[in-house]
């Protein structure tokens, strides 16, 4: 039987707020079994860019990462956000080790080809090094990934944290029974976006198709769910979407996705 | 017999210059056997502080690390400098893993007590986690440390990179025959500061005392050498000071320190 492995992704909004981050890390530190954390960086990068007199460039909600933005993103994601989280987890007796995809060659990507939009140093994931990550897990470390990858030729790349989380869950799926947790500020996927308690508890491929056809799922949630079903099709056991309460051991109000 | 382990420290000036850094990393990547890299961050942190409208505060060549300076130092040392080096080493087939002292709980420190000067979030090293570092080495990783430590209670601390290097060499000295390399822009310890070729090839405790008494060694070099002899007294096999040419396998012009 495969060992269980939890891959937990926290969004930028959780990191922004010191108290929310602290609550989350308390819960995460107590999670039993093998686990991996993946975090975004979010607004802090935009704040630092502005402070440094660099105008943040976005296109359809995605950052255009030119050379100087990549420097800032590397500082904020790989430095400030990652090390702050690691130090706090250590204080909670969780033996965290912070990683970018370059560290231990864990996540390789290629620079996104220029089509209509030039996203600059944005990376699309090619491969996850399950051996390196397993070695870290077996040494008793808890890997904490920031949203940076590398191309194997010395270039760091800014990569969507949701994608890193799902690719890691997929990459580890051959050796582990992986569950992917997307942790954000809502209690789950909502059937009524104005009602925070209208959480859809279970979504499978069939109900997903129906929900999509009926226009129930909001536009912002669609790419997230696409990502989730992609992971499920590629060896990930289960995907959960909700707020931090979902990673308590008790069954609670959140969305579970299965094929 | 103990395995050999090289702990190599590169100074901020080597990192500043892209070509020098690249030359250094090429040499470091080819070094055989177990190895650890420790790097400073140097001028980049000062540049970023200034760009963000924060006045860098120094006292006797040491940074006063207030809360906002600590954020910048964490970004530059742990993020930009560390990840850039790691990505470049990966391109050279050296399986680097970047670490602060918080990662894998490798280096713990305490906030320097306030005496005449309040250095802010500056850390003095308490302990090195040889077990964690050994686990990483045995997994085939090459640890790359930046100049950050933690206090085990969630606080990151800015810590002198020379000290981190010597403390790691000392901490690993129980299990390994450690050699500590201080790599900087000069060819070694000079007997005549105006003559770059006046390298003193060997210094032991006795000649060190004589050189000091005769005022041969420059003031800036004194704390470095104190640090080196401290390491030698605590289980470090050998200390070498010089430029990157010293880590070629051939004996070359550099300073070797022994007890």
Folded structure, characterized:
The structure is a homodimer of 259-residue chains. The first copy, chain A, is an alpha/beta fold. Chain A has a single domain, classed as 3-Layer(aba) Sandwich (Carbamate kinase), CATH 3.40.1160. The first copy, chain A, is 37% helix and 24% strand. Chain A has helices at 12-16, 18-30, 43-51, 67-91, 130-138, 161-172, 205-213, 221-233; strands spanning 3-10, 34-39, 58-59, 62-63, 96-99, 107-111, 123-128, 142-145, 148-150, 156-158, 176-183, 202-203, 238-242, 255-257. The first copy, chain A, has an 8-stranded mixed sheet, with helices on both faces. In chain A, a hairpin with a 2-residue loop joins strand 3 (58-59) and strand 4 (62-63). In chain A, helix 3 (43-51) crosses helix 4 (67-91) and helix 6 (161-172) packs parallel to helix 8. The longest helix of chain A has 25 residues, at 67-91. The mean pLDDT of chain A is 93. The A-B interface holds A 48, 51-53, 71, 74-80, 82-84, 86-88, 90-91, 95-100, 102-105, 132, 135-136, 139-141, 148, 150, 152-156 and B 48, 51-53, 71, 74-80, 82-84, 86-88, 90-91, 95-100, 102-105, 132, 135-136, 139-141, 148, 150, 152-156.
């Amino acid at each position: 039987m495969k060992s269980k492995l939890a891959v937990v992704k926290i969004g930028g909004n959780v990191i922004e707020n010191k108290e929310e981050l602290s609550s989350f890390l308390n819960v995460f530190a107590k999670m039993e079994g093998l686990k991996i954390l993946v975090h975004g960086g979010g607004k802090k990068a935009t704040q630092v860019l502005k402070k440094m007199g660099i105008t943040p460039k976005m296109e359809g909600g995605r950052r255009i990462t030119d050379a100087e933005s990549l420097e800032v993103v590397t500082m904020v994601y790989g430095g400030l956000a990652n090390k702050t989280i690691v130090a706090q987890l250590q204080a909670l007796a969780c033996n965290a080790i912070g990683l970018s995809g370059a560290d231990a060659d864990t996540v390789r990507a290629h620079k996104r080809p220029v089509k209509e939009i030039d996203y600059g140093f944005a990376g699309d994931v090619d491969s996850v090094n399950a051996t390196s990550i397993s070695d870290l897990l077996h040494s008793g470390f808890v890997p904490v990934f920031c949203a940076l990858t590398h191309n194997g030729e010395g270039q760091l790349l800014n990569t969507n944290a949701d994608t890193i989380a799902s690719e890691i869950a997929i990459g580890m799926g051959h050796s582990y029974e992986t569950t992917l947790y997307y942790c954000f500020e809502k209690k789950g996927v909502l059937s009524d976006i104005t009602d925070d308690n209208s959480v859809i508890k279970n979504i499978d491929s069939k109900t997903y198709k129906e929900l999509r056809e009926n226009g129930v799922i909001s536009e912002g949630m669609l790419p997230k769910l696409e990502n989730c079903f992609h992971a499920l099709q590629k060896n990930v056991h289960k995907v959960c979407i909700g707020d931090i309460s979902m990673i308590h051991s008790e069954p609670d109000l959140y969305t579970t996705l299965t094929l």
